[in-house]
Structure prediction request, 333 residues.
Amino acid sequence: MNYLETLQRLNACHGPSGDERDVAALLKELGAPYVDDCRFDVMGNLILHKKGSGPRVMFAAHMDSLGLIVTHIEENGFLRFGKIGGIQPTSLLHTPVRFKNGVYGVVSLSEKVEKKDASLTDFYLDIGAKSREEAKEKVQIGDTAVVCTPAFSLGERMASPYMDNRISCLVLLDALSQLGDHENDLYFVFTVQEELGMRGAKTAAFAIDPDYGIAVDVTLGDELDSTHRGSSVLGGGAAIKVMDQSVICHPQVVEDLETLARKEGIPHQRDVITGGGTDAGAIHVTRMGVLTGGICIPCRYIHSPVETVDLKDVEACAALVKAFAEATLPRLG
Prediction:
């Protein structure tokens, strides 16, 4: 798979939490040739099913992104906005954004406020309108916008907005396209509204009732002068999650993933982060509980317009997803 080109196609779609339909449609188009069944649930999760007679295994990667939502239109045409997900407004200062209808704008900050003292209400969007009436011809209260910066190559690494978590969606597609013989009953789920509390994963896991769950997501990478909030480093291979704020992964799943990685020669490392969470947090407490783990891609500058990953780590994660999907797993119950 050409990750950069496919990521650029995904990023051209509008897909903030709560309106992931365009992203889901493209992922369905890309994944449908490799599965037996495709469906959407009420929440909007895309569920690709590859049938098997063995245990049910659910892989989950969320397809939603952070976003902005218009809350007020000023008389001079500037827009006030709220955040969708965990945005730090200062990371968006002077960043271009795009609305679903194709209107563009830029995030700016009142000159009366110092950046270090700024709160969300001090920021605004400039869409080029000269008045409230002109602005209303372009956007409405409740319209959403996403960051509109390019995805680009950094040699063996790649930077892009919404690497969290579109890159993991591509990991699932890549693994699915290479899948060999398997006994497991496989569900590749592209979830909605993870950035708002793992909402899509809750309903999808309840409906599928998996025996095993693997969340695929990004994790904190090694930034300069890191305070060790996370253990993973770019270029260190697939990060096998042990713990984050939402889950303590089942020791058996951690062991199984590490055993498979060693057997297949897949570069890997352990992942522990002191904050944040993934869809694993929702999956592992579904119904009577699910044997749950995580396969993560180390990522620098998470929740910024230039999230950065190493392509070797991405490929290692796809290989490990494939290995777990093909593995002989004991039946439960």
In short: The chain is about 25% helix and 30% strand. The chain has a mean pLDDT of 95. The CA atoms of residues 89 and 120 lie 6 Å apart.
